[in-house]
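FAQ: What does the model actually see?

It sees only this:
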Amino acid sequence: MTKLLFIGGVGMPEILFIALIVLLLFGGKKIPELMKGIGKGIRGFKDGINGIETGISKEENAELIKKHDEK
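And it is asked to produce this:
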């Protein structure tokens, strides 16, 4: 059976190698801008997930109140 790439995890040497390649490709000045963009994207994703959860819980509460008022 053929082993897939990266089975067994990614160790410190692999992480350092990837960081070196990114540094060479983008340069030192561009990396902070990239990280800032990634951070904003992650934050937006989390805010979206929290908004969905809040919306669902509000809908559930409204349904429970409606059922309680009907009794």
